[in-house]
Amino acid sequence: IGGNTSCVELRAGKALVILDGGTGLRLLGQKLLKEMPFTAHIFFSHVHWDHIQGFPFFAPAFVPGNTIHLYGGNNVSRTLEETLAGQMDYPSFPVQLGQLGSKMAFKDLHEGQVLELDAGNGEKLRVTTGRGNHPNGVWAYRLEYGGKTAVYATDTEHYSVIDPRLLALSKDADLLIYDSQYTPEEYAGTAGGGGSKVGWGHSTIEEAAKLATAAGAKKLVLFHHDPLQNDAAVREKERRTREWFPNSVAAHEGLTLNV
Asked: From residue 198, how far is each of 2, 11, 27, 131, 204 by CA, in Å?
């Protein structure tokens, strides 16, 4: 399954979008070195460490000629730029954000904002922002291009009813990538011996299936696995979810999907 933290690459025409900058961003950066110079758009769901720690090791950010647009919200008391700069301050890291060679542009988001990115040949990739339920806040994204839709909604905890904001954002999605960290038993604290996970800001495979069904999504990707789950446990989550929503797949490193 792999142990790197959240990072998803999305291609739409010539547009390169990266969803979150977890440790997986380091490996993606090595792959992208073959495509330089390039323009990339990185959308951060939030700035907890497991979603930003890969950025200081994103090799293309050090190379002049690359352009990187970075999007995120002011969830607590600092902007995305201030947060990324903070994790690279001395003595934590030897190179500061302002010393990187690429051209970087930061954009603060607000809920419901719609952005249109150049996808080439006069086409646009449309990105709509939404909010999830996570300590200190979290963003979800709906990406539309060529009549197809992908939704990225990680690090969000379900309510007693389906989250109406995520339901609207996910409506008729061809691909729904959703926080499925726990089984229902793990979430309730009746399995695993770790106690209840209520209030931790993460959801379950059962709630993922409920959202996918209610939204009319075509495919569900179980995302943000618990670090305590081994490969067999993740495959069991996948098996169980398919009983509720047959077209489900558990995310793993290197997984490639065509929408």
From this structure: 26, 35, 33, 19, 11
Question: Among 15, 19, 75, which residue's Cα sits nearest to residue 52?
Answer: 19
Q: Tokens 């996948």 belong to which residue? A: 238
- Per this entry, what is the length of the chain? 259
1: Cβ contacts below 8 Å, ≥ 6 apart: 225, 230, 231, 234, 250, 252, 253
Structure tokens at 54: 């890969």
Q: What's the rounded Cα separation, in Å, for the pair 35 and 63?
A: 12
Other beta carbons within 10 angstroms of residue 149's beta carbon come to: 22
CA distances (Å), origin 78, targets 83, 222, 250: 6, 30, 33
CA 46 and chain centroid, separation: 9
pLDDT tier, 193 (very low <50, low <70, confident <90, very high otherwise): confident
Residue with tokens 């003595």: 91
Examine the pLDDT at 84 and tell me if it is beyond 70: yes
* 20: CB partners within 8 A, 6+ apart: 5, 6, 7, 8, 42, 43, 44, 45, 51, 154
**Token couple for 169:** 């954002």
Mean pLDDT on 97-122: 95
Dihedral of alpha carbons 166, 168, 169, 173, sign = positive
Q: Are 3 and 252 in contact (CB under 8 A)?
A: no
Spatial distance between the Cα atoms of 193 and 195, rounded to a whole number of angstroms = 6
- Per-residue pLDDT, averaged over 147-169, amounts to 97
In this prediction, residue 142 carries a pLDDT of 98
pLDDT digits (tens, 9 = 90+) for 222-253: 999 999 999 999 999 999 999 999 999 999 99
